[in-house]
Amino acid sequence: MRSRFWQTPAAIVALSATAACGGSDAGSEEESMDEQQEAAAAVDPAMVGTISGMVAFTGAAPMMSAVDMSAEAECEAGYGEGGPMSQNALVSEGGGLANVFLYLSEGVSEAPAAMGAATLDQLNCRYMPHVLGVQSGQDIEISNSDDLLHNINATPEENRGFNISQPRAGITSTQRFQVAEVMVPIRCDVHGWMQAYVGVVDHPYFAVSGMDGSYSIANVPAGEYTLTAWHEEYGTMMSSVTVTAGASSDAGFEYGADAMGQAVPAAEALVLAHGTSRIRIDRAQPQQ
Amino acid sequence: MKTGRFPLVAVAFAMLFGGVPATAAAGPAAFVGVAPATSAAGLATLFGVAPATAAAGPAAIFGVAPAAAAALQEEGEGKALYDAWCAECHGATGEGDGSAAESMLPRPRDFTQARYQIRTTGSGELPTDEDIRAAIENGLPGTTMPGWPNLDDGQIDSIIDYLKSFSRFFGAGPPPEAMDFGSDPGGGAAALAAGAQAYIALQCQECHGEAARGDGTSAPTLEDWRGLPVRAADLTEAWFFNGGSSVEQLHRRILTGLDGTPMPAAIDAMNSGVVSPDEVWQLAHYLASLGPREMPTLRDVARVARAEGALPADGSEEAWAGVETFYFPLSGQIIQSPRNFAPTVDGVWVQGLHDGSDMALRIRWSDPSESPDPRWDEWQNKMTAALDMDGAEDIPVDSAGSPLFRPPDALLLQFPFDPPEGTEKPYFLMGDSRNPVYLWSWSAVDGVSAGRGRGLESIEAFADDPVTGGAEWAEGQWTLYLRRQLRTDGDGLDFAEGIPTPLAFQAWDGSSAETGKRSAVSSWYYVLLEPPASSTVVVAPLLAALLTGAFGLVLVRRAQDRRSK
Questions:
Q1: I need a labelling partner for B491 at 20 to 30 A (CA). Which of A146, B430, B480, B501 fits?
Q2: Average pLDDT over residues A194-216
Q3: Once rounded to an integer, what is the mean pLDDT over residues B197-213?
């Protein structure tokens, strides 16, 4: 069980590195790619562990608000009977909070370069995914699956932004953010409800919680880190985490809201020792 | 983008109004909160300036101030110039938050972000030095940024260096390079047709509207990077384009986008084959064909010609084809609070005809919203918040955030009751107690009516005035039709042929929270009903020429006849 857990991502990394180098011209670029490949191949299972866990939401689950897409019947038709709902606070039946960006904010000394491209699609007038993690300098392939005009307007502060139009389906734009920035907002001005967030970090140790609130960050070198969780409505929380080689560390976060819908970060609501890793909350600080 | 107007110009305009009281010049200076210490060097010169200087044009207005001139001799010339000329709006630390910034929409550039709208570089890239230089030299039309003809090349160089130093983005990589824009395949009818197709292929109408007046479906929700409301440009008013109105400049804006605004770069769409490189040029030609390149020449007198037949019965295009059109600019009302530094209506197009007993006017103006319109609620709230800087009354909102009051669009024409003596006219804001004005008022809710104004807050409606008419909104433009007998038995004004009657305009865009004093105003102009003689003057020489020609023909024919015999 344990060995299979790390082998799979390592294999993927190695494969993508091979693919990225295949057929490239000789030159310094290739050399650096070779170095990357070596670095990737050098992920030693004996040196890395995994951080995983749940982002829970307590209290009254936020009311989902309907999104008025009547201006784009084509997009509205892509949703079921209930119609499109807002994406800003998705809580699963099991109490998991989706679209939380989790990343190691302290403790990472060196990291392999980005592999392959991240993708951001526009489908039925919504960004897929709503929250995306990328590594600084990594290609982000932004595509349009809707046969209508979208503009992709990124307004970072630490990075250079961009604003590109994609007036029909099938167009792909490749963009990059060069330095770490959590988060870069992306919006479509044609459709004011379209909003995405990109978390840019200098290493590959990040994840976005799924619909059930779970996440997993693999291949983390053993060591002491600060793990930060970010949510667009409920702010930022941090936690210390120790990763032990060959082990899985369980680190959970708990967001909440009071009856008025105000964010309540539950300070003691943390987790848990698992295997050899210890986790505790250093501080919880919702933004604003 | 055309959201912003030009308060500085507005001030100058205000000063040109006949009978402007002393407070007109003092008001704005007090309002922008210019400290006496900076007034010698800064823009304050402008606000406190005497009317005669304001009328003399930008060169006089921006003449080198003594404080700045002295600083030029020292080290740090860029900083000295910046502090003297730029900091008032852009802020001492370059964050676009100078003391005058709050009254401006769009706000002044935040140099720390290095987000420049007008570039020759790709989306999100830094501008070249030449891009920045062009903005300083020529200003940015449609915004509050004036050109700076008083600065020489070396001074501009030092300012460029200094304002780049506000941002860590400059100097971090290789110097930005201009894109390769290719070459213009040329204009012509076929190019314009192809350009019109490219407009649709790139989906420009989503924001700019079918008739390109900035009234697209998405227009009410547009925001700049600060979250402030921003207009989709009215592409028929090229003289407000901040990046210039030439085909080449339009082409660049399409491919580079306007960073910090919703206007995206179409470069990827072009590279994906949505449009060809030539079609982007043709789109630029098409946009350049949508209206005059320059602001129409200002003429003081709107001539109302004598109609050949019946007067037009409505404001339709067919009825008014061929009738001369006069353009009169409007600017924000900034004399009395609440002031309006970003008016929607920036000018009116006026046509008139009379038949000796009645007069008909057709007045058109761009307004992307047909107010009241709930689709613009959010826009109205944002405009209220963005410009609520001098204690203007807010329009209250309900718990769902909808405004409790949606002001209608409106237009007002005013004429002095008493024939003017010399150049003196009533106070331009609907007269005053001593010099009342005769008003024709139209609103999208109440229609057309007449009345008497003794100042902005003292308007008395006439029940018996025979003025009639109505307005229609289509594709981002209002067309107002007004008709009245020249002479009436009521309380209104009698119009006489051959005598110029002073005329001024005031306009409101309800969806931009314009109501009451928050409006756009014009200076005084004249309307002149041409006497019947004027047509004889044209017709008589024509007849004479025709008769002479005919007589000549007869003579020639006779001579030829004689020869052939």
A1: B480
A2: 97
A3: 98
- Three-state SS for B287? helix
CA–CA dist B448, B469 (Å, integer) = 6
Chain B residues inside the 8 Å CB shell of A162: 123-124, 265
The Cα-based distances of A281 to A169, A227, A284, B65, B86 in angstroms read: 45, 10, 7, 60, 48
CA distances to B92, B224, B242, B262 from B204, rounded to whole Å, are 38, 18, 18, 12
| Predicted TM-score (pTM) of this structure | 0.80
Q: For chain A, how many helices (H) and strands (E)?
A: 3, 18
Q: A244 pLDDT exceeds 70?
A: yes
A66-70, B26-30, B431-435: which has the minimum mean pLDDT?
B26-30
Task: Tell me whether B265 touches chain A (CB under 8 Å).
Answer: yes
DSSP-assigned beta bridge partners for residue B437:
B416, B453
Across the interface, whether the CB atoms of B206 and A170 are under 8 A apart is answered no
How far apart (Å, rounded) are the C-alpha atoms in residues A48 and A40?
12
Residue B443 vs residue B74, higher pLDDT: B443
CB B360 within 8 A of CB B377: no
Residues of B in contact with A163 (CB under 8 A): 123-124, 257, 259, 261-265
| Global ipTM | 0.78
Of B248 and A268, the structure prediction assigns the larger pLDDT to B248
Answer yes or no: do A167 and B221 touch at CB < 8 A: no
* B115 at interface of A, judged by CB pairs closer than 8 A: yes
Q: Find, among B412, B425, B421, the residue nearest to B520 by Cα.
A: B412
Structure-block tokens of residue B269: 């769409």
End-to-end CA distance of chain B: give it in Å, rounded.
76
DSSP 8-state assignment for residue B174? S
